[in-house]
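Progress narrative, work stream C.
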Amino acid sequence: MFTVGDTVFYSSNGVCVIEDIQERTFWGEKKLYYILRSSHNEALKLYYPVETAQSQLTEIVSKKKAELILEQFKNPPDPWNERMQERQHSYQKILKSNNHIQIAKMVNTILRRKIELESQEKKLSSGDQQLLNQVLPILYKELAVSLDISVEVVIKEVEQLIQNH
């Protein structure tokens, strides 16, 4: 169980702070809920049941794990699947897995593809760009919190790792 003030990771909502724990009634059922404030979108207040079968709330990755995640940006990209529907399906499975290493590998592949296309004066598909727009702020924020650095420093580090490898 988490406590008030804990910083947690909440799947697609990213890094959140537990502001309170209160009993609330939703859909006619009274339960204990974490009241979360998204650090990605401070206007967003979330309610998450304290007791649930498969919790989507996890601790923020450790500094060591964050460093391993960053290391993924040194690697060459995974093979590019030209079939967009298959690629998007594969990426959605990776996101649902909440496996940070796999998510970083996916992001590395898409970012490197974007750079390659831009060098040919082409653009990334809108679906791939939307995925980056969704995932990057969340990934960068969690890495920043874990490494105790700013998001801007994380962005520069990722860009540098991709350029140098």
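Work stream C, second folded protein:
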Amino acid sequence: MTVGEKIKYFRTLHGFTQDQLIQATGLSISTLQKYESDERKPKPEQLLKISQALGISINVFMDFDIHTVSDLLSLIFKMNEQLDLNFTSQKDSNGNILPDTLTLSFGNPVINQKLSTYVAFLNKMADSEKEQYTQALQELENHLLDDSTDIQKTAPIKEASAPASDSAFSDPSYQKIQNLLSDCTSQEMEWILKSVQLIKECMRNTHE
């Protein structure tokens, strides 16, 4: 999809008319129409206004062309800096990492849930016709991109805090929580986390 097509898609998805979007962004109607028809390319500051009004990331409108090793590694290094990115691999008898066994994964359940949906789609549509596959894939990607859940790297545990014991993770209550959260949507996860934070603060204030 072009930038203009994406603006129109997400505007429609979020129930905005063109008049409503120009009121929220300060753009003129003619400017927005030219953006959506790809007669004119919006500047970064205009894209930022549009993305903020629609509640989506400005990165949705950006192209990340990967042509070189540097292009790819710069994205991975940035993810490792800002996200809970995990690297796992197998080693040979000399302790050297076997490159073909290297895998990347995320410690954030919201990301994992999104990627699971994406991979499940790829497996399901593998034998579909190219045109049908491309259209369905674009719709899924746009649906998954329409999410402003905060996924920044979690803060490190303070040294004064006692480390969680292995027995804590085998506790039946912990297992029940895991099962409860396993099929939550990203929006549900966000609500649950906010609720838990509020409950924890209330409990601690009560005991002070």
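Confidence is low (pLDDT under 50) at residues 157-164. No further action is required on this item.
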